[in-house]
Amino acid sequence: PDAIVVGAGHNGLVAAAYFARAGRRVLVLERREWPGGQLAPNTFAPGFLVPALHASARLRPDIVRDLDLARHGLVVEEPAVAPYLSILPGGEFLRLTTSGRDPETLSSIRRLSARDAERWPEFVAFMDAAAGFLDAAYRTPMPRMLRSALRFEGRPLASLLLKLRRLGRRDMFGVIRSFTMTAREFTEGWFESEPLRAALGALAVHGVTLGPFSAGTGFTLIHNWLNRDGLAHRGRPGEATRIVEALVACLRAHGGELRTSTAVTQIVTDCQQVKGVRLATGEDIPSTTVLSAADPRHTLLGLVGAPELPPDFVWQAQSIRMRGSVVKVHLLTDGQHGIPDGTLVVAPTLRYLERAYDAAKYGEISAQPCLEVTTAGEVVSIHFQYAPHRLRQGDWSTARPAVEQLAIDTLAGHFPALRGSVREVRSITPQDLETDWGLTEGDLNHGQPILDQLLFMRPMPGWSDHRTPVDGLYLCGSGVHGGGGISGAAGRNAARVVLKHDRR
Questions:
Q1: Cα–Cα dist 96/88, whole Å
Q2: Is the Cβ–Cβ distance between 319 and 448 less than 8 Å?
Q3: Largest Cα–Cα distance in the chain?
Q4: CB within 8 A of 16, min separation 6: which ones?
Q5: Is residue 503 packed enough to be buried (19+ CB in 10 Å), middle (13-18) or exposed (0-12)?
Q6: Cβ–Cβ contacts within 10 Å for residue 288, how many?
Q7: In degrees rounded to 5, what are phi and psi of residue 481?
Q8: Cα separations (Å) of 118 from 59, 107, 115?
Q9: At what angle do helices 114-139 and 150-165 cross, to 10 degrees?
């Protein structure tokens, strides 16, 4: 093949589809029995089918257009705006949508603060503008900051800065400042109501091992807003499966090949030139171009190996921070759980969220966790934070039932009918994410989206253009620029870099 893609997660499939569409012979190798990576559904039992890791999934619109995924079965319909519900004392909800003039949203906020209700439309407009700029940043190749190449590589960055300037003076400075701020500082600058600030803080820390008092959670709030197109999950049931099916269909329609149950154990190199891959069966598949959708640390230190890389680069790869702390708890109920539709969060105050994060810093499971809850008929899915990959005491074989019970008890404290409705419980721990999904330390983002691992410093300073010291080996997973969450941006960007290099 002209190119081999290691891993059939959404970024790997996006990169492969771009290659195949450009007329290249591409082979995708996936160690699991099915493609999709984090988008692959799990069937725990008959009638217990769940989106295992992500309640919704949305590829960037330009990817859907570029690959003509509608022709391959991905019908893109704008779903109804779902509410984002934060539980208030007394069993009431703060009901939020990202329609700036939605009467129900404004009425819900006004019960807490008339001033905050007046500011909400302006806040939504700012967040949409900030997310639009971040989307442009994710489409912009990040230069490696080499003096010899900066003159040429810096041109896209100059264009991005022009887009930033077009936001207007006030929003331009607002966006720049928000990236480095804590979620606490950012939300306090907009609103006076603590429940509203905490509801936004819950989105800022979703999927990352940071607290709302951590620098950079202003950035993660905008990042998650971009990926969701707002606050609540917006995808229709089964959207993730349809995305995977459309990407596979696109790949095959253009002559690409996908092989599942095919584990790659080594990326073969010679004198820092990629030569192909070696499978668990011992088979070698030659190719002078390999893209890895696995996380950077596993790719570089596991599949390539430290002896094949420069010592300073190995040190950088070892320093990539992977800090998984998410448990997914899925409940099969009799349908009488009493939980409303939408995206529901247990996040009463910012300090509550920070205390939940404090536990993870010391290797402990949060006794009062931050929960995000979605429902799909009889299935209730709970996103539980925080529960670190490395536990200070015990291990995940004994901690699993305790976390499952804690998730149910916390949620049942607000919805008493839940406890009696539960028929089966299944969970996915950070240890499962590492063992079964191949995510180092159970990190859903392939590396934390923290300030020193963003933009031209992702995955490592000086290596933000998908290249590696091994000629012909590129990174295309969530751990590189544009990655984190479900968007496909990292796979799209990597494919463009390689195809541009091939044209030269």
A1: 13
A2: no
A3: 67
A4: 3, 5, 26, 28, 251, 256, 258, 291, 491, 495
A5: exposed
A6: 15
A7: -55, 130
A8: 33, 10, 5
A9: 160
The end-to-end CA distance of the chain, in Å, is 19
> Phi and psi of 48, rounded to 5°?
-120, 65
Given this model, what pLDDT does residue 11 score?
A: 97
Distance CA 431, CA 388 (A): 9
What pLDDT shows up at residue 317? 95
Provide the token pair at 249: 């269909």
One digit per residue, the tens of pLDDT, for the chain of length 504 reads 999 999 999 999 999 999 999 999 999 999 999 999 999 888 787 778 888 899 888 899 999 999 999 999 998 776 667 899 999 988 899 999 988 789 999 999 999 999 999 999 999 999 999 999 999 999 888 876 555 555 556 666 667 777 777 777 777 788 888 999 999 999 999 999 999 999 999 999 999 999 999 999 999 999 999 999 999 998 776 788 899 999 999 999 999 999 999 999 999 999 999 999 999 999 999 999 999 999 999 999 999 999 999 999 999 999 999 999 999 999 999 999 999 999 999 999 999 999 999 999 999 999 999 999 999 889 999 999 999 999 999 999 999 999 999 999 999 999 999 999 999 999 999 999 999 999 999 999 999 999 899 888 999 988 989 999 999 999 999 999 999 889 999 999 999 999 987 765
One-letter identity of residue 217: T
- What residues have CB less than 8 Å from 363, skipping those under 6 apart? 388, 390, 391, 392, 393
Q: Quick one: angle between helices 217-228 and 194-204, nearest 10?
A: 80
Pair of tokens at residue 92:
């009431």
Q: Where are the alpha helices (DSSP H) in 337-395?
A: 350-361
β-bridge mates for residue 238, sequence order:
none
Q: What is the CA radius of gyration of the chain?
A: 22
Kind and range of the H or E run holding 95:
strand 93-96
Query: Could you tell me what percentage of the chain is helix, strand and coil, using 3-state DSSP and rounding each to the nearest 5?
Result: 45, 15, 40
Is 89 strand, coil or helix?
A: helix
Kindly give, in sequence order, each residue whose CB lies less than 8 Å from that of residue 489, ignoring residues fewer than 6 positions away.
Answer: 60, 63, 138, 139, 482, 483
Measured distance CA(387)–CA(315) in Å, rounded = 27
Alpha carbons 376 and 408: distance in angstroms, whole number: 17
Q: How far apart are CA 270 and CA 164, in angstroms?
A: 43
Enumerate the β-bridge partners of residue 327: 384
CA distances from 158 to 154, 162, 324, 423 (A): 6, 6, 35, 56
Beta strands in 210-303 (DSSP E): 257-259, 264-269, 274-279, 284-286, 290-292
Query: How far lies 41's CA from each of 12, 50, 252, 348, 404, in Å?
Result: 17, 6, 21, 31, 20
C-alpha torsion 182→183→189→194, nearest 10: -130
